[in-house]
């Protein structure tokens, strides 16, 4: 599995900035309760396991027409509440990629200042829809900027798609792994549950090994081969 | 509670006989793909291995499963009460598909205030004990562990470690995640024993617990266990985390550091692998000493421009006190080098004295 590059050195041990990016467009309305329950489960897991929270520095971002930082990378130990997500709007990826780059610019120096040896950030992106950006490829340039290898803290991106997610788009957005739900085998709800469970397992395993660990398979999903990003 | 002594299984159990999933306890992690409670055998867990696991020949697991049957009654009682010992190998045809284990008793759980939703029963692992911040416990609705509790947990963990050592079992995976503890008696339940080996075992990643004298992917033997158990004890007693376990040692009270227990712990942490105390020795020392006060809580210190709390692992600790007599010894080859150097210097000085006495010409014509 990938060994994330180390960016600056620190004295508080290694830490992996982790962005969970959730599609909360109108089409996800049916799964809103499941989303909220699972988000709470992820946060509670980190809250109950200091060894995981020491390594996984979590931020949660939702997106539909516009993106929204639901949980800043402040550290679970300071967390007092987590807003619930409300699914509405369309699926605009461009503003989300721009926000991710902005947050990485802010969050990583903050972690380094706390003494964390910051590993390459990881983005877990879950979506059930095709991009609705206008013009249609308006998300491509923000994605290029986010994954630009000349930009030192460029992140790894792992995508989970289900419902109306477009396989070619997921492949293009992913830099490390892409999973798409097998619609013939599982419902959207089962796929989302499986993806979130896989994500949580990845966080736990990554913390154990101090390195990014991805599941070899996700129940109800198939892996996509990744295409090189046109730089 | 279910235990090795009371288990109803044969040494090898076909996968078809273990039943469906009553409740999933863990997903893919490490060597397992899934851990679930058997619907057919409630109170027993099925740990399914990923393909390629276990790494060791199945004879090792079979021998491990049978071992408590050859132990003394005292050791078997310790297994039954404190160790999640594998009871049966699960096979799918010719393949080893997993292992059957007792589910941890509920006494290792504690009602816990969550960030969201109602309080839940949460299993307490070492992660929850190695904390210095009173706020950590307050937020979860828990009493801060007393020195007596910390000492009881340390004693019971080391008792399990001493049992492994007596039976040439290498555990190798002492960490924050691999044992539960109960309140207020400090009983413990050691996990993941199915991956143990006899005399040695494959490397296991155990961040901040790795023996610095073992290269990654080398096999682990009892000496690595002795190091990790010394780390475990200083962390349990002080609550201090971090990359450097010697900081936790330094946080012990001076009277503990200079006492036989402190000297043994220091040898476990800082000496050559062969100089580390046996687990049995450490166990006897722990049994004979009083509880020690834990490390002080972390101090809040905000870096310029940032409002952040100091992490628990950077809590200030006193500098190490007087280093016990058994402080790290020089390796043998360095001792030889040192002796040769001293001999050369001594010879040179003698020659200089002799030269001063006018005898050089007779020695070097």
What does this structure look like?
With 231 residues, chain A is α/β, with parallel strands linked by helices. Helices cover 33% and strands 20% of the residues of chain A. Chain A contains 6 helices and 8 strands. In chain A, strands 1, 2, 3, 4, 5, 6, 7 and 8 form an 8-stranded mixed β-sheet that branches. In chain A, helix 4 (140-146) links the parallel strand 5 and strand 6. Residues 1-10 and 226-231 of chain A have low confidence and may be disordered. Chain B is built from 13 helices and 14 strands. Chain B has helices spanning 15-18, 58-66, 73-82, 126-129, 134-140, 147-166, 222-238, 245-250, 254-257, 260-270, 279-287, 332-356, 360-363, and strands at 12-14, 21-26, 32-38, 44-49, 88-92, 95-102, 109-112, 120-123, 169-170, 179-181, 188-190, 197-198, 200-201, 220-221. In chain B, the strands form 5 sheets. A 6-stranded mixed β-sheet of chain B has the order 1-5-6-4-3-2. In chain B, strand 5 and strand 6 (95-102) form a beta hairpin. The longest helix of chain B has 25 residues, at 332-356. The N and C termini of chain B lie far apart (89 Å). Residues 300-338 and 350-365 of chain B have low confidence and may be disordered. The chains are: A alpha/beta (231), B alpha+beta (365). The A-B interface holds A 11-13, 40, 43-44, 47-51, 54, 75-82, 110, 113-115, 197-198, 200-201, 204-205, 208-210, 215-216 and B 27-30, 50, 112, 114-117, 122, 127-128, 131, 136, 175-177, 205, 207-208, 241-243, 303, 306, 308-309, 311-314.
Query: Kindly state the mean pLDDT of chain A as a whole number?
Result: 83
Helicity of chain B, as a percent range: 25-40%
Average pLDDT level of chain B: 84
What order do the helices and strands of chain A follow? EHHEEHEEHEHEHE
Unreliable parts of chain B: 300-338, 350-365
Largest sheet of chain B: 6 strands, mixed
Q: Classify the helix fraction of chain A into a percent range.
A: 25-40%
- Main sheet characteristics of chain A: 8 strands, mixed
Could you say which structural class the secondary elements and strand pairing of chain B correspond to?
alpha+beta
C-alpha end-to-end distance of chain B:
89 Å
Strand element count of chain A: 8
Strand content of chain A: 15-25%
The percent range for strand residues of chain B is: 15-25%
- Structural Rg of chain A: 16 Å
Give unreliable regions of chain A as ranges: 1-10, 226-231
Number of helices of chain A: 6
Q: Tell me the strand order in the biggest sheet of chain B.
A: 1-5-6-4-3-2
Oligomer state of the chains in this structure: heterodimer
